[in-house]
Amino acid sequence: MIPPPWRLNLSTPGRHGIVLGPDPHHVGVARRWADRIARDTDSASFALITAVSELVTNAQRHTRSGDPGGTTTVVVERRPFAFVLTVTDNGPRPGPSIPVPRIEDRREPLAAGGYGLRVLDTLAAYWDWSGKAGGPLTVRALLERGTRPAAAGGTDLSHR
Q1: Spatial distance between the Cα atoms of 118 and 120, rounded to a whole number of angstroms
Q2: More confident residue, 13 or 148
Q3: What b/e string do you get for 92-104 counting C-beta neighbours within 10 Å, with b at 16 or more?
């Protein structure tokens, strides 16, 4: 089998997917891929690119997706006014507890790390996760696409 990253061939129009490996450089691959998928202005694609980056980083740091041979699957569905993002990991590493996505209660505001889901919570209109204890976990987020209001008289000047 060819090592990741590789694109998924999804049959539904407007849905795009990529499988990434455990290499930390794949986070940058994911950001560039998300930017191309967004096909939008910088301000409109910022939320998608940032959310992809944070969730892939979390999968690599906190799950078997970051171990040798691990993968992270990212799927983006383009909708007229939103992106639906799903990121699926390989499940938790062996240990005494099974971690689940949660926003950390920060007692030290200058602590390094631990802000990924807080950033996602700020950017997303909605997010949740699904999976079974000990198995792969999927985080899903709805990210609204920035739209420019039409100018007076109904003429859209955003393409000039």
Answers
A1: 5
A2: 13
A3: beeeeeeeebeee
Which regions of 109-153 does DSSP assign to beta strands (E)? 126-131, 137-144
Q: Could you tell me which of 123, 143, 146 has the C-alpha nearest to residue 43?
A: 146
* Tokens (6 digits) for 30: 């994911």
- Which tokens in the block code for residue 120? 């996602």
Residues 48, 77 contacting (CB under 8 angstroms): no
| DSSP label of 94 | S
Q: Are strands 72-79 and 15-20 parallel, antiparallel or unpaired?
A: antiparallel
What is the value of pTM for the model shown?
0.82
Phi, psi at 50, each rounded to 5°: -65, -45
For residue 80, give both structure tokens: 């007229």
- Type and span of the H or E element at 70: none
Name the band, by pLDDT with cuts 50, 70 and 90, for residue 104. low
Q: Is 67 exposed, middle or buried (0-12, 13-18, 19+ CB in 10 A)?
A: exposed
What are the φ and ψ backbone dihedral angles of 66, each rounded to 5 degrees?
Answer: -90, -5
The candidate with the shortest Cα–Cα distance to 129, out of 63, 71, 79, is: 63
